[in-house]
Queue: 2 jobs
Job 1
Amino acid sequence: MKVWRCVAFVLGLVVAVLAVPVEASEAPATRRVALVIGNWHYTNSPLFNPEHDAQGMSDSLKRLGFDVIYRTNVDKKGFRQAVRAFGDAIRGAGVGLFYYAGHGIQVNGQNYLIPVGADIQRQDEVIDEAIAANLVLRKMERAKNRLNIVMLDACRDNPFTRSWRTRGGRGPGLAQMDAPSGTIISYSTSPGSVASDGTGKNSPYTKHLLHNMKVPGLAIEQLFKRVRIGVDEETAGRQTPWESSSLKGDFFFTPGSQGSHAPASASSIGPFSDEREAQESLDGRIARLSQALMKSARNRSVYVHPIVESTQRYASDFSRYLTLRIKTFMVNSRSVTVMDGSQLLALLARHQQESSVQRVLGSGGRIDEASLLGADLLLDGIYFVNDTSVDVTLSLKTLSGETVTTIDESFPKARITMPLDNAELKTVARIADTVQQSGDADVVHLSTTRGGRHPVYLEGETIQFMTRVTRPLFIYLYGYNAKGEVVRLYPGDGEQQVPLRPGRVHRTPDDDDSWEIGVTPPFGTDTVKLFASTQALPVPRLDQTVASKRIETVGQGVSRTRAIKPSPLSKRINPVDLVDYFREQARRLDAELFEDSVVVETRKL
């Protein structure tokens, strides 16, 4: 029996049915009612995390004043009965909350929660055997509460994909759900992407959710931002929670002291409070953001990493401008010493022959740029584009990784005149399918000597890619650029395929290789993608003249029908079809396939 690993997904949906804010000073008479369901005793794909996630959520909600209906391992009848009882209980309540942990899938753009005992052999049987997630939303809407919250901690992998061939917009995870006006929607990762199962008893998202629900005075929108930061750091950037919001009031799981809603350990400039502030210039907003940072960095040196987009980790004109302006404001304050990659290259040029520097460069893992330059702190930043705003999260950390402060800022989208995306990298991400790659940070990890979080290399430097695995796996490494060109980095022609063993770092190129990857013009941003399989896979020959077999259709989103057929070792394929080729080969051989990628930016000195 094949045991499917649970990959956690959480969607937090807050529905403000009425335009009445729920304030921190919420009256004690306001009722809070919750339904918590955890399913893990599946016959063919049992799970581990849901038992602990659901129990932890139930206990936490009780301590926070919720009346909790708690059910575990329910079949379809028990599931529907629990939802019906919940729908009756929340009528007249101030807040209703539904939490589910277990298997969940999407079919034709609709999300379904899988009861225990479901017998699903074909795709068209899902609607009869599973529970539509929209059923809960309908119960909540009819209850006419002041506020409703939905959290789905569902397994992102479809455990039935080997039993049918799916069509019509199926992705590897749940689909984005529609909800009434006045909502906040939070995903543990971007819609259709794969989230991590984690190594502890809780999924990464639920772990950080439970922690932040206890923070006094933390509004729910700020809570999700804190959760995003925690998950992003724990999964090394492979999983970045995503949310959009039209919520008009504030809700606090744990109210703070009167007059103060923000936790003492966090800094938050907060949303715009009036029309004058909304008209504030972009530079004025960045200046205040920088001032908030400098309160924690005063009289210290800070190594600044490039601020990047949260999902695909690319730098845009907006993020470059934001990074530059923050550094400028910090330098002009004369209270903070700012360091970045240009100073590192100058240091390496001066000490190129020193063995201590060479040992650091070749030690594996992320190069300790901050230590080499003598910095005290690191500054990391990500931004996320919503419908009407751009949310920026900055984290100031010690060299050991401990967070000193985290600052959130929302910029009105209409006031940003520079591009927020990177068309070239989006093209690369589409070809390499980095958004929907089947990754697992606990099994395989791709990095560089400059780290794995948007590493930046300057002219004259050399690049090495490093792969670590926790299981014996065969690895395949390819580089992609925006022109649609793909180059094989490993294995080379005639190179024998042997599995990479745990405990060993595989370098590409290896120190003994007769070739190297040097940074020369033209400069730009490329993606390097890793495939890791439990079985040796035939390596295709890439040929631009071969017609692509990829078919793309556009509906509510972009869905792909993969038509790659199993191919012999000598088969030539179009480079665009490489991802589909490896996934099809793994499916054909009944092998597990893991994917990872890293975006590398090269710049002129």
Note: The radius of gyration is 25 Å.
Job 2
Amino acid sequence: MSLLKRTVRPRRSKIRPLLRQTSPARTVFFTITNLVGFAFVNAFFYYLMTGKWFDFSSNSYKSALACPLSSIFVEPLSIFTHPWMILVSGLVLTAIISVPILVAVLYRLGVSALFVLTVAVIGHAPLLAIFIAIGCLLAGMTRLRNEVPFLATLAGLALIGLYWFFFSGIDQQTLSPFEKLTLHLAFIISMITAVIAEAVVLSLARLARFRPGVIWPVLLTFLVAPIWLFYQKVGPAELEYALIIQKIVPGETIIAPIKPAFLNSSEWKNLTPTTTSTSTTQSTKPTEEKAKLLLAYLQDQLKIRQQKLIKKCRKFLRRYPRHRRTPTLLWIIATVIDIQIDTDAFLAGKLRYYYAGPSDESLILWEQLAEQFPQSPQSLIAHQRLGIGALREERIQKALEHLRTAQSLIITYLEQPRAETTLSKTTVFAPDQPVPSKEYYRKVLFQTDTILWLMEMNEIIDGKPQDIEAFAQYMKLWPFIGVSRIELQDLAKAFNQTKLADNFRLQAALTIKNPLDRAIKLSHLANQVNDAAILANYELGCLAVQFSKTPAWTNNHLKSADYYFKVVKNAQENPYIAAAEKQLRWINLSKRAKVSQ
């Protein structure tokens, strides 16, 4: 029987429910059954976006207002990296948009309000609920409801289509044209499935002669099918991992600094002393005391955020100890443990984090990562961290073993073609990007090359006990952030008989805040013939790029940037040659541009 034909039921003067009247108990039973099933569909919808089945906090509803409908397809699990989510998310969305409209047509219009409320409260989709409510009114308040109910349901679904194309929240800048097309097709498939579902329900209603109980079989299908597909083809581990990765930032600090408002205040920038008076005395509290209090507060906040992230990662590791994502989470924990605040930047009105490890606590995790997951890319970072830890303990041969392993394997890893370069421009589905990125491995490789180079230049491998002790002290201060100049100068004096003494003097010079004073100090070291002189020349070149045109620079007999970079380039093999060549190319391009003008 065609769905576009009028119903066989007699025409009524009033628009009434399509299902025939039956006993109140039967009506209530089927209504509650449908409502409970629909509530679980919405709970699963919310679970796919947040990892939680239920959440009735005020913050969850505030976040929902800013969450567009397209989020179900792109975050935290994206259809572009997990294609099965097209079917999973599509089936869930089909049930959410079709069931309330069917209820509005088959039952009383007021009953559909309960289902719309479920979308807003349990599904945390208030804007979608508003459009579904309008769709229910269109479907349930026209004569089509009694005469051609299928057309009534189509009218209701049309409102959902308008909501998608005008308020879906698709990011036009970050998505390629093919990705945008795929996203629209995913929604269109959901709409087509919704039309088919409504046709099936209305056909069952005709066959059952409009008795209650025709919705729940279809609703059960849309509840069981996506859940089964999700657990079989994707898995809760992938969702939990995606929710963790969603909150981290690229790079070594992992946690993004949240700059407090007081760092923008004029009081903080001026660093003026504050005076407090009492009835008997008046005292001036220096800004250093205030800075210490504020720094302690920020350190506490960082500690809380570290603990939250580590807790999530450890929870994942307990549930899925041998999962393919385990090495990434071990890397996150081991790195986050050693994140600290850059105190010098803080006093300058900036909030920065830096990696200060490896510490005794994180070395346990790095060792676990290297031993249990030797085939993972993250184990290469673990070897570098273990090498640094061994150097700090004066275990030179063990350090060499780890550092050389890290060096050779990272080079091999970086030579592998990038996933994004091997794909065509029209490719839509691709593996998710590795965490950390390949740029991070390049940074680790540069650090490893530099450490091995310093060991060779300062004869640490077969050096005297004093040389080894000096290098251990040098590595304990790595990466030289927040280290005082006095401490570095004292170490230079203590190890004055070693080749590493100039390296301590170099790091002390780099702590000088005034660029000109720093350049003058570096110029004294740049005239030597050692590894410290190479780095001093490179740093002078970077300063010359900014200040070589100033009178103060030339008055102090400081040279041009290309001079310093050429010294680095022509020196014996060192890790800074590539960076110096890059700077020289940039300088030459700038000169040519000026000549052409």
Note: Confidence is low (pLDDT under 50) at residues 8-13, 271-286, 419-425.
